[in-house]
Amino acid sequence: MSLLTAIAATIASLNINPVCREYVFEATPHIVCEVSRDADIRLRLYGDDGAPLGQFDALIAETPEPILMAMNAGMYHADRAPVGLYIEDGATLAPLVTRAGPGNFGLIPNGVFWSDGEQVHVTETLAFERLQLDPVFASQSGPMLVIDGDLHPRFQADSDSRKRRNGVGIAGDQVVFAISDAPVTFHHFARLFRDGLGADNALFLDGSISRIHAPELERSERGTDLGPIVEILSRDERKDLP
Fold this sequence. Notes:
Layout: H1 3-14, E1 20-25, E2 28-36, E3 41-44, H2 56-61, E4 69-72, E5 86-88, E6 91-94, E7 111-115, E8 120-124, H3 125-131, E9 137-141, E10 144-147, E11 150-151, E12 166-171, E13 174-180, H4 186-196, E14 201-206, E15 212-214, E16 219-220, E17 229-232
């Protein structure tokens, strides 16, 4: 029995419903992972040695609890430092960026995935700044995919820019993570969250380097070293995905 198979069996024995599942939207395969907004969700960047974790196996080695899901959690520089706001365990490691700029991150409106210690949220950047919050964790990325039920105004249905993409959204009392298993446009990916998964607000996390660790599906992808990583360690009862 492989390590991933053993982990999947352990998780299955502890829980009734899966966290992650395969989900097809408009004939395109995705992996969707859903938990309650008050589940144990954490951001991790640096390991105990002070170096970026980079890979899921390094994250697993430093996490004593079973990890139900992990994926990259925002854009980063060559040294894997976050591009925008990054807060871990209440410590701000990178500041909020409010200006427009190059690349996907600067395609405003962008947003922040954050927790107040009780629930997780996805909030557009300028709205987040106005709230003057003191989050337990936060990761800024961009662009926003869905903003109060509307798609990002710059997305085009006929775009020919197709890449693997991952993101996070809020659907009622659930937080929903998704990663495409085929190249998709921003317009498709945003509609996945809004029309397929019922998210009123959703945030793009990253593109071509996107990867997921999903033991229930016996998947733990490797590739280029990552920057910030989000992990789910526990959950409450959840609704079924559509």
